[in-house]
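Fold this sequence, please.
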Amino acid sequence: MRRVRMGCDASVLLDGSDGEKAAGPNANSLRGFDVIDTVKSQLETACPGIVSCSDILAVAARDSVVALGGPNWIVQLGRRDSTTSSQSGANSDLPAPTLDLSGLISSFSNKGFTTKEMVALSGSHTIGQARCVAFRTRAYNETNIDPSYQKSLQSKCPSTGGDDNLSPLDVITPTTFDNAYFTNLKNKMGLLHSDQELFNGGSTDALVNTYIFNSATFRTDFANAMVKMGNLSPLTGMSGQIRKNCRTVNS
């Protein structure tokens, strides 16, 4: 979810020092651009100028979740690609790992998502990793954290240096799409400050408990929220373009 338009116009794929790739939340964090390049190259050979980078991203997101044991959903197609990428937009719009619960609710609400949808989408942190720089403060300065987990994080993330050292967002099942992320939060094992805020005596504790005890509800809510995210102001019709190379605009 590390994108301003949530992948709906593939702006995050554009290269450039002033684009979204170089934004604070994305720099040295986003991966897999080469996979998108490979898919795009093969599609351009088979059917040039037909499939947008935006649609590739939307389908890849769904297929990667399914491949790791998560839910399926119907991806609506027909998006077109942006010709611009906004680093300032990414820096201001993407939810930071330091946000408290009210900040998270506001950040998602600004994009039209309910609190329930925000919690469900946060469950995507059942896979993936985060850099030391994103969880250092939690590892050393916070108290609502399991002591043994805290020591483990400190062993991976020194108090100074090692900013790019990685730790899984879900320490229990890091490569399986399941509801363990929420169980981790109840056990005070959320990696990011923003993760643990979802279960810290606030209004979303009940939602976390629901997803812990009913994985089917989580899967349904997550899939529905992803469909909604995929429909977030996409470029269609004659807007934008269908890029030949996802890293650059057409000449």
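The chain has a mean pLDDT of 93. Residues 120-225 form a domain with the Peroxidase; domain 2 fold (CATH 1.10.420.10).
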